[in-house]
């Protein structure tokens, strides 16, 4: 599962054409001892320290402001409404300007003496450098050319509205202004894809063929049939009836005269020009510098020096371990066939599935709300920002995964949301609901991300840090905590937890298989099906996700294994002094950081408690 909804990932992926959460890598120069939050007052800063800290935070602020202005979609995701009426500038000149700006930020950072900073600011300094070195290192691979996939891209820009505020007539006007400007954005996006095709840096054709039906949903013959019209069918009470009629009239005009023709033009380019230019091999190895790019992605997403070969071996070992655990559950329920035969029963027995989207949605909501009261058993610090459950929009549901999480806004006016896929409920197993909810809501993504964003003393880049190995490693680790929260009482739900753990182990094998060992798409699908009880629809969507997003799937298991290793170390070294609530608070105290930084922080915590 991902931290960001598809349109939110697009927003961040196109931030200056390069996103810190998605591209680039760098050796992380480790800070000294990272200092966990403490109630004791810090020692007074010296004059040189104060001057250096001021310069550092001025750089943080200017870089953050630049990124928001450069990428209005990212600003919208974060909840900064100043740029809600516009789209990113994807022109070649703008993208080169942004790349130059990233190099300039590193030069300005190098001029700030790190040794003059107090320890907490040294950590901020080093994390900021990691992010920008990451961006700069990725520039040569031109990652923006790969940002469109079967799940992400401009095919469903109507979903941007889900991130915006619609409380007043002015909010609707802002959205309409953005829609009026959309044709230029689509034209620039097409030009960027055309550049990528010339350089043979494209997604595989098998993925891009899945985009055509999504684009077809935008090619309607009347504005009221457009996905963009949905936002104008309901208005808050603060919008008078006369204003509603005026806004609807303008919406019909904008959608008919601007939005639909722009999509027709883009769809024609995509179908006639871009699709024939896409590559036939699915692995990133088939692109220029593909092997180097994949090694870069593996380092970036895991924040480690593990090679693709070593990650593949880890995956095989984890698959073998979890298969043995699955066999125990099969024995418990009295199943006498093979593991694959048990998978077939789980995929085909109607008792494991709801028949209507409403039933499935209610089950997700009830599960999420049952977990919340149990959280104080495992955590000393809890979030203040609420979360809700929403269906994944119909425009993307057929081509996306079972669920994802979208974080709250910076200003606190938008809650976090757990998005669930209600498309074809007959292929969404009941035994996955508990483990999926733990991962995507609490104590997984929402608990961790909301806590980080609520740290008002941190600079914004840290509150919104997108370091995948930490974020997804925590969410996968959280799945095991379901046992302590009263979940998985049914053996099939326990098998669901093992299925999800296996799913992430399989990812290590198939992602490296596809992109480093030159597996075919069919090989990857078959390996997944042979080892996990996911349904066929989920398996195909997942494999296509790994094809289109090389390396990202490696982060989950690598992060989880590190947190489990740190917990085992703490339990072993602290013995009776080990407290699980304090351990979890320590893990969450840093926000998203590279795994080596997290390990040093936990080692410090162990030493202090010992």
Helix content: 55-70%
| N-C termini distance | 36 Å
- Low-confidence residue ranges: 1-42
Continuous helix count: 24
Please tell me how large the radius of gyration is: 24 Å
Main sheet attributes: strand count, strand direction, barrel closure? 3 strands, mixed
Find the count of extended strands (DSSP E, 2+ residues): 3
Strand order of the largest sheet: 1-3-2
Q: From N to C, what is the helix and strand string? A: HHHHHHHHHHHHHHEEEHHHHHHHHHH
Average predicted confidence as pLDDT: 92
Shape: globular
Helix/strand structural class: mainly alpha
Beta-strand content: under 5%
Topology:
Blueprint: H1 6-13, H2 47-70, H3 72-78, H4 92-110, H5 119-138, H6 169-180, H7 182-198, H8 205-208, H9 211-216, H10 241-277, H11 290-302, H12 308-332, H13 339-348, H14 357-371, E1 387-391, E2 403-406, E3 416-420, H15 433-440, H16 445-453, H17 460-463, H18 468-481, H19 491-515, H20 521-531, H21 536-548, H22 555-574, H23 580-588, H24 595-609
Parallel strand pairs: 1-3
Antiparallel strand pairs: 2-3
Helix pairs in contact: 1-3, 2-3, 2-4, 4-5, 6-10, 7-10, 12-19, 14-15, 15-18, 15-19, 18-22, 19-20, 20-21, 22-24
Task: Please provide a written account of the structure.
With 610 residues, this protein is mostly helical. It has a domain at 6-282. The protein has 24 helices and 3 strands. The longest helix has 37 residues, at 241-277. The radius of gyration is 24 Å and the shape is globular.
